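cache lookup: miss for this entity combination. No prior model stored, computing from scratch. Input as submitted by user K.M.:
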Amino acid sequence: MKKSELSVIVFMLLFCAFFFYETIQLPVLAQRYPLFVIGLLAFLTLLKFFNMCLAYMKDKKIIDDFSTVWKSFLPKQFFTVFLGFLGFFGLMYFLGFYIAALVFLLFALIFFKIPKKYIVLTLVVMLVIVYAVFTWFLNVPLPEGMLIENFF
Amino acid sequence: MESSYALMAAGFVNALSPLNLLIMLISVTIGIIIGCMPGLSAAMGVALLLPLTFGMEPSTGLIMLGGIYCGAIFGGSISAILIHTPGTPASAATAIDGYAMTLKGKAGKALGTACIASFFGGLLSCISLYFFAPMLAQLAMKFGSPEYFWLSLFGLTIIAGVTTDSLLFGLMSGAFGLVLSTIGMDPMQGVERFMFGQDALYSGVNVTCSLIGLFSMSQVFILAEKAIVKRADAAKFDDSILLKLSELKRITPTVIRSWIIGNLIGILPGAGASIACFIGYNEAKRFSKHPEEFGNGSIEGIAGSEAANNAVTGGSLIPTLTLGIPGESVTAVLMGGLIIHGLQPGPELFTKYAPMTYTFFGGFVIIQFFMLALGLLGAKIFAKIAKLSDAILIPCIFVLCVVGSFAINNSFTDVVLMFIFGIIGYLMRKLNLNTAAVVLALILGPIGEKGLRRSLALSNGDISILFSTPICIGLIVLSLLSVFSPIMMKKLKKS
């Protein structure tokens, strides 16, 4: 029995419980199909758990495989980039897409220690591609940002 | 029959329009670039560029997605041959003899063989696409609500069962997606289900957002968690990329054999290019007059693998377009593209929308010629691009994911949804669950729900309607068989 698999079982059962609770708030006729698919997921999850229990009875051990699953995980790098993503969303909301993209790309490329000439090249190529494809070709009104819209 | 030929000819002419040709050139180039970069997959590329097709005619949009698909499958061979790292799993077998040839200073010859074999594999697979797809579509005309319910279940069992190591985890992924597919307005009762006050969820979870999130954004997370490794330098080569007539003659039987293998594997939903390349390679070795060359740089080995993986492309489109059952994750994304354009896979694609479908087919044929030309002329440039660092790819793909998901409805909610699906996809991939099954469930879930609920409404709740026709029984048998297919696939892989 692997700990990672056990975490999946727990998550799926909690997920089923949450959707089951939400389903029973619905009118009776609208409950049937969601209950059918929730039941299907719960059944498969319990079947997997049963298989895992059988394996446990045989081996009598729980394998802590989280170290294998997260072997290559670099928390500092990952969460810095993740915060960068969230920062991008915030900047996009207030200052608009292009400014946010410029700041984010600059931040990420400097963080990854990319040489200056490649930073400039990447910024130019990316912004030109996005402008040409989305603004010019697809006419997508990319967010201009709350602050920009209010002040200009 | 005559009208079919007329449609084929008209489709071919439409595909030759300047816009379509330009789109083919761009999409095949992008596909090859994505394919030759280890770590990026064909499904990721197709999902990421799906929003670009919104402003296009459906046929042009599909041609673009097809170009990326074919380009990426071929592109994987460039890095397999030059840096011994397959760009995609479909080129894993190519790396064996391709890199051996590179070490002997014959990288040009290896690339030329891969290119020509890919071209013929892809081109020949179009024959089956042209002739088998309409036949299967005619069968689909007989489908009613109960059949559609079983068909969606069959589709789910296939993809859920094949692509993960654990069958139950695969099926659980599919069921997880089915629960997510119930979000939105109830199609029969008209009540809100699990919308949590979000109007954007009225018509359910946006499939494009989920595709971009599960395939592209999750890939960004995967790349961001690992140490950035400098890619190996691609080997430089000066030998000719063109094959001699004697070499062409030598690989011809292998190409034909691999085409049949790849095509059959493509048509059988659930398998895919990664399995086809190994079977094609093994069969090439078995029938070769020089089996001792395999592993030491055999052009037949490269041809066997590359013709087979490219032959999968046309074959896998057959069940996708006719029955709505994608054979693998790339075709699941392609099917999403079809649905985004308001088209449902099935018989209508060969009746009401036949001109569009045959234009796509025509385009699919011409794409192979672009692949050949770009492969032969641009291999050296693509090899240099394959060196592009993950450190540059991470922020660039993220920006494209954001702008792509925003472009769907010009809504920030879609960006948030894409990001959430990115996190879900990342965790699923870490924990060995199947993201393709979730996407498929989001696509097939509503079809299955309508099929089931309409059937029960028609029969006043009598479930025997679900077992009332031979097609239903056939689909139930196929579903059961597909559940057990992973065991068969494992045996095939081992052999």
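stored under new cache key. Residues 28-59 of chain A form the longest helix (32 residues).
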